[in-house]
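Methods, example record. To illustrate the input and output format used throughout this study, we show the complete record for DUF3795 domain-containing protein. The sequence lines were provided to the predictor; the line carrying structure tokens was produced by it.
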Amino acid sequence: MKRELGIARCGLACCLCSENVECKGCKQDGFKDLCWCKDADFCETRKCVLRKGLMGCYECEPAGCRIGLYADKIKPRAFAEYARRYGVEELLDCLERNEQAGIVYHREGIMGDYDEFDDLEKLIDFIRTGKRRES
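The corresponding predicted structure is encoded as:
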């Protein structure tokens, strides 16, 4: 885990991303507009956060948001909601602990263990505990 890369503006975990080893994270140096994500120029979520002067969606009220990735992706919504509720450092602590326990962020391409959920609260619980709970 590259903890120093932190959490992306949208909520995704730059710190665990294996897509680009040269990546510096999408919010390096705080509010500066530095992003190495290949989709940065097109990312509606990122544009919204920058327009609002926020560090990330976790500083906003994401419940009904459907901008960019939030239109159909549960993982960034769950990560941002976790950070909103418990703080970015707590999210990073959980992700680091989960990685050490064998939970994989990217297994095949950009899909991994956090992508196996269709319920926001179940994914938030998985982030917190590292365990899948049956209904």
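Annotations derived from this record:
Residues 3-129 form one domain.
The first helix runs from residue 44 to 52.
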